[in-house]
Amino acid sequence: MHKLACNLGFNSYIAAPKQNFSLLKNMDMKKVITFRALLILGLSLAAVSCKKSTSSKNSSRATGWQINDREGGFQYNTRFEEQETSPGLVFVEGGTFTMGKVQDDVMHDWNNTPNQQHVQSFYMDETEVTNVMYLEYLDWIKRVYPPTDENFKAIYHGALPDTLVWRNRLGFNEIMTENYLRHPGYAEYPVVGVSWIQAVEFANWRSDRVGEMSLQKAGYTKRGSHLTDVSADATFNIDTYINAPTLTYGGNEEVINPEGGRNRNAQVDADGNPINIYAKRESGILPLKYRLPTEAEWEYAALGLSEIRSYNVYRGRKKYPWDGQYTRAGKRRIRGDQMANFKQGKGDYGGIAGWSDDGADITNAVKSYDPNDYGLYDMAGNVAEWVADVYRPIVDDEFNDFNYYRGNVYTKNSISEDGTVEIVTSEDIVYDTLSTGKLVARNLPGEILQIAVDDNETYLRTNFDKSNEINFRDGDKRSSRYFESFNDDDESDEDSETRKMYNSPKHNVERDSLGNLIREYDKSNNRTSLINDQVRVFKGGSWKDREYWLDPAQRRYYPEDMATDYIGFRCAMSRVGSKTKRKNKTKN
Description:
By secondary structure, this protein is an alpha+beta fold.
């Protein structure tokens, strides 16, 4: 109808040229030109509006029915344009690169030979997680799960960094033991003494808090509820909100569906039932989760290869996150300055005091050195960083060369008899005893109970066949194509076959009925490796490492439940939608 009207208007002007031009004869030439310009502009706008009216985003291309109809029906965010960058993150555009060592393997580890990999676009923390960021996490836990309550005591203590990592039998480091974590002088220094498990828990907490903030801004939940309405039995969790929004905040309706809220999407359908009162994945409001980066993501981001890209090839290779073969800057303005914080030699952790010093003897404040081409700071030096992967001395690029990651353990939501998800309460908290004797909560109140996937999800699948895929093609006998097991249901058989190759010590720590620790140290002389399913990769050099370890390709491992004074971490987040943020591609 709109298109017909537009065509008729245009044709009527063309059909009566004599009448139109007789009017124009009475105008001077300048007015004629102005009139014609305005007429052409008006016709152009009318044509564009007619064209747009036939391709509304709220009209289904599948059925022709209206999407987001006020009377109800299918509701979807058709105005979503771009994933919002969450706090602290920078965008890293994905692509292909050579993962692994491109320099000499002087340590003869042979654990990361060059292989071609591709990673999707993602986001990564601009800096390492700092002491003040981690203290905010500890403060939240202390308020919500007060350690004075015996039931929650282990939650707070399980999150505390190990400040004793600074001690040395022949060193005076008590100043760091007592002050590094909490003193304002170290506020913007990277947090250390944090195990891999603690880093993962921090990322989970951060995801929930940012999601909580997004819902408040959009008017879905009560403003300020993160301060006034939170307790051990009334917390917010993203997964819980998506699956059972009425169970978040302990079912507090005043918080979940506040009166006078600014939720512009809330409507009432034809039957008088409210719709769009809760945000969903389809809303595009909830951010994705923070997590640890995979090893491939971390290495790709650290290299910052975009600065040596020429059209569709890389001009050479990079040894460090900066372009060049040396650790000192070559630019005239900063020539001679160290580009990272690392150990320069025996007994030399920073250099001679003065301009040639790298500015630090232990860690240094984040952003003390120039970022790489992606805008990421300290991807070499300062502290090494945890990544998500379980360590194996091989990267199996023959099986997968896209988003490579070893460590998948697939779980699903536990469903109760009435068909609803099972939510962990303060009485249901289960604590695991780590090899160090430390207790950590497996789930926190308000979270959905997770269980391993079973035959309902794995039957006849070709892409995965069980919940725990950590040991898949890791070089042991079970990875062989000729291996035949007659006891597939026997988990101990699988463990024994794995341990024939990765024969690591197996210490046992338990607690008796009184809560006392019973430690059984493995004193066997037959152990041949420190590699098992509980060791994780950490990347990058630190203030305590020599220059060799600054190469992003270097990989080392450490037990996931232990910490050091030179390993920190940063978070990452996946990206949804387009690969790039640029609307127009740049050739070079």
